[in-house]
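Dear Dr. K.,

Following up on our conversation at the group meeting, I've run the structure prediction for Glucagon receptor from Platysternon megacephalum. I'm pasting the input sequence below exactly as I used it, so you can double-check it against your construct before we proceed with anything downstream. Let me know if the numbering doesn't match what you have in your notebook.
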Amino acid sequence: MKPQILHNITKKMYTKEALTTQRTPARLSDTRTWASNWSLSPRLRQIAMRGVFCSLYSWMLVHLAWMCLLSSMQHCRAKVLEKTFEEWMRYRDECLKKLANEPYPTGLYCNRTFDMYACWPDGSPGSTINVSCPFYLPWFEKVKHGLVSRKCGPDGQWVMVNGTQPWRDYSQCEEEMESTMEEEGARRLMVSFKVLYTVGYSLSLLALVSALLILTIFRKLRCTRNYIHANLFASFGLRAISVIVKDALLEKRWGMEILHVSDWEALLSNEASPPRNQILLGHFLSLSLWGSSPQAAVGCRVAQVVMQYCILANHYWFLVEAVYLYKLLIGAVFSEKNYYTLYLYLGWGTPVVFVVPWLAAKYLKENAECWALNENMAYWWIIRIPILLASLINLLIFMRILKVILAKLRANQKGYADYKLRLAKATLTLIPLFGIHEVVFIFATDEQTTGILRYIKVFFTLFLNSFQGFLVAVLYCFANKEVKSEMKKKWQLWKLDHPALCCTQ
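The predicted structure tokens came back this morning:
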């Protein structure tokens, strides 16, 4: 959506008066009744909420969708929407109380009103009424000294444009266009990132499933080393599935599929058919009500918990691979069968030790939406510390393994160039297996990275994590000499058993 189009839509939304503002009470008792009905009558509350979504949310959702993608794509959008709506509710309640308690002036005047955007006191005929920008605006800190204005006509009626739309000057409460352009650029960048990691996880999932089938079907490939590879592939696959499912649930709940210019213009101009309007309004209503109901978010939270478990399991199977390879290289004598049981506990059991406390902390202290945001980073460290610990141990083992490989290559080197090439090959092969690349950003936490550094971190993290499963499947299954030899034998046997299906001279 182009900024100019957004500006036109915003302007049109600001000048669209809600139904309730056309029926401003003329007496103090009516005002008090009107104010109390907002909080007591469910039917009026539903009608009011629909008015909110028509005149306020339909303007704000598009802008917030851009703003939120700067930090965490769909997650942030949900949080900002809920926070903004809560602030709007508080602003509205304070306004209605204020309007109900203030005495009415005598003579001719423009009626006090809350027009879904700002709170307006009674106005003297022929005057311009200025009020501060409403504090519920997400960018309020930037415009807190600004004013929004309306004009009271000589006849005691608020000035209208073209006889139907109220005149309002809100220019001082708008966010700067430069900031909007930056948000649009960030939005496009983050959407590109999402496409990138979705493709990566999908490709990895396809390769990992194929690799798992190969390792389980061929009996001669069944050994402790390949069992560990299979578990690593499974952890990658579960991680990919959990991320895709979590994104799908978030998109279903918080996605703005209907946020198209044509939808907004049709809704605001009443050109859309009644069924279409009901769909749009119902979607806005469900967005708000879903965020306020903990029970309704169970599915999304379960997906979030499963995703965190799969990510932890993935890191600890990295660790299992590192420990197993190190034991092989140093020539340690051990029972592979007994150690394999310990490997299973380490890879699949260790994540439970950390996910359960994190789940309890989120449920008791931050039981909001999808548990995707971290207001108190202390809870997030419950998940982050074991990941950092596993990555650091992997790094130490990686360096130790390189030292062992270097010593063995030096002892058996035939040519200097060949020796260097083999060492480089071994290094590059071990990096995706152990997840060593994650150490690069191990101390660049989300709280510390901003601007270009944040985008660089997000890109490399999403790209490497999503395509890593594909790379591991290729290196340790499809490109493995033992696997290729076994598949070639099976292919030759199949051709002998099915001569009629094979090509003939």
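Two things stood out to me. Strands lie at 113-114, 119-120, 128-132, 147-151, 160-161, 165-166. The CA atoms of residues 329 and 404 lie 7 Å apart.

Best regards,
J.T.
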